[in-house]
Hints:
Layout (H helix, E strand, L loop, with lengths): L3 E9 L5 H17 L3 E17 L2 E13 L1 H13 L3 E10 L4 H29 L5 H43 L1
Helix pairs in contact: 1-2
Amino acid sequence: xxxxxxxxxxxxxxxxxxxxxxxxxxxxxxxxxxxxxxxxxxxxxxxxxxxxxxxxxxxxxxxxxxxxxxxxxxxxxxxxxxxxxxxxxxxxxxxxxxxxxxxxxxxxxxxxxxxxxxxxxxxxxxxxxxxxxxxxxxxxxxxxxxxxxxxxxxxxxxxxxxxxxxxxxxxxxxxxxx
Length: 178
């Protein structure tokens, strides 16, 4: 049995639930493994605008599966992609004609290391971009909020005093009239 390397790109509906999308992806991975293949890389390209509308959709969620396996595994993957209602389009391309499963295991390990390094770099970049919150700034924010509350209370008191003065003035006017 000849093991070949394939790449499948497929587009899912953009508005499906997270759980349904995960279920679809897991089923495809299971099909590859049961067919005697190895999933080398799964790449989520995200939601992108389609070149033309497919049904009622102008956007789609793109995925790329890079895997190695016999041709029967590919035909089974494509059969399931046709059956899934959430799949808008798919395309499978043969990358290499003859590969060994051991070599693909090494490639998969390298891909996982690259992905982990990319995630760590992205996380570090996000942390570097986010301004650190200083304790002094946090205390200043609390002080500002307390001052605002005190000002509101003073304004309410002033309004209350103004009401009392007007009643006193009214009483004096009433006495003058008598």
